[in-house]
Design a protein that fits this description.
Number of domains: 2
Distance between the termini: 105 Å
Largest sheet: none
Number of helices: 7
Structural class: mainly alpha
Number of strands: 0
Oligomer: single chain
Strand content: under 5%
Length: about 160
């Protein structure tokens, strides 16, 4: 019987404890409801404005990226006009049916290959036919400062043409 009294006492204490917790929870909920809410609406409006500004900035960046390739395409004919006034050797207006991979030349990456294509250079044969005057003209056009001679493009292209 002593054991049962202790168990009943524990149960009663636990029950009282849970009642107090519920009352405290109700009281804090009542206090929250009665207290004035902080001004959340202006914060939401500010957040919306900031989101709109960020979206506009992103849209402008995307528009610039979209316009940038278009601007490069507009500049390409100007480069061809300059190229026409200089001695560039054999230059194509359009890409021929068989185009060589100019990236095989050491020091020529995708960007430089695009520039060479923009200037009308598509094949190894064109580069092999370059005279010192042509090399100087391309050095000036591409702002290489002697890179064609340093990287020995003509020797590389001759080896690539022979391997083809």
């Amino acid at each position: 019987m002593g054991q049962q009294l202790r168990t009943n006492t524990k149960r009663r204490r636990r029950k009282d404890y849970l009642k107090r917790k519920k009352e405290q929870a109700r009281a804090s909920a009542a206090v929250k409801k009665s207290s004035p809410k902080p001004a959340k609406a202006p914060a939401k409006k500010a957040a919306k404005k900031a989101a709109k500004k960020a979206a506009k900035k992103a849209a402008k960046k995307v528009a610039k990226k979209v316009e940038a390739p278009a601007a490069e395409k507009v500049e390409a004919p100007a480069a061809k006009e300059v190229a026409a006034s200089q001695d560039l050797g054999l230059v194509y207006d359009k890409a021929p049916d068989s185009v060589d991979d100019l990236k095989e030349i050491s020091g020529v990456g995708p960007a430089l290959e695009g520039k060479l294509h923009g200037l009308g250079i598509y094949t190894y044969a064109q580069i092999l036919a370059w005279t010192p005057a042509n090399i100087a003209s391309f050095d000036d056009l591409l702002s290489f400062k002697g890179r064609i001679e340093r990287d020995e493009w003509l020797k590389q292209v001759a080896a690539l043409e022979a391997a083809k």
